[in-house]
Amino acid sequence: MAGEEISEDYPVEIHEYLSTFENSIGAVDEMLKTMMSVSRNELLQKLDPLEQAKVDLVSAYTLNSMFWVYLATQGVNPKEHPVKQELERIRVYMNRVKEITDKKKAGKLDRGAASRFVKNALWEPKPKHTAKAANKGKSKN
């Protein structure tokens, strides 16, 4: 009987998709409640500037993504809406933050150790050895 009611409201083929979507919306709602339970100032005071930027970017991207979904549910093509440019702009900033994070994680070069390593790895002829070879050549003639 429940299956008959579902088929009247929407096609049975999309029931699984709608159920998954409803679960996802519930998870987003729980995350938003968690984020809203702490004041923004308290949250940002505990973070360094890079982490603050990450929180702000993720929040902006999430809100714009949710608006994208809202537009799609209203029959508006979000690809032709300014929200697309906003998502791209946020994505560019997210990539910049990622580059900064990657630079911080990159290893540092110890110039002194590197120059000693290269200096010791290079072969240098010994001056005594070359002088003996030159003298041997002269005495044979």
Helix percentage: over 70%
Shape: elongated
How many H/I helical runs? 7
User: In terms of per-residue confidence, which ranges show pLDDT below 50 for 5 or more consecutive residues?
Assistant: 1-7
Secondary-structure element sequence? HHHHHHH
State the oligomer: single chain
Distance between the termini: 115 Å
Major sheet description:
none
Counting DSSP E segments of at least 2 residues, the number of strands comes to 0
Radius of gyration: 33 Å
Classify the beta-strand content into a percent band.
under 5%
What is the average of the pLDDT values? 82
What is the structural class? mainly alpha
Please tell me about this protein's structure.
78% of the residues lie in helices and 0% in strands. The protein has helices at 2-9, 15-37, 40-45, 49-73, 83-105, 111-121, 127-140. The longest helix has 25 residues, at 49-73. It is elongated, with a radius of gyration of 33 Å. Residues 1-7 have low confidence and may be disordered.
Using brief descriptors, characterize the structure shown.
141 residues; mainly alpha; elongated; RNA binding
Task: Give the SSE layout.
Elements: H1 2-9, H2 15-37, H3 40-45, H4 49-73, H5 83-105, H6 111-121, H7 127-140
Helix pairs in contact: 4-5
In short:
With about 140 residues, the chain is mainly alpha-helical. Helix content is about 80%, strand content about 0%. The chain is built from 7 helices and no strands.
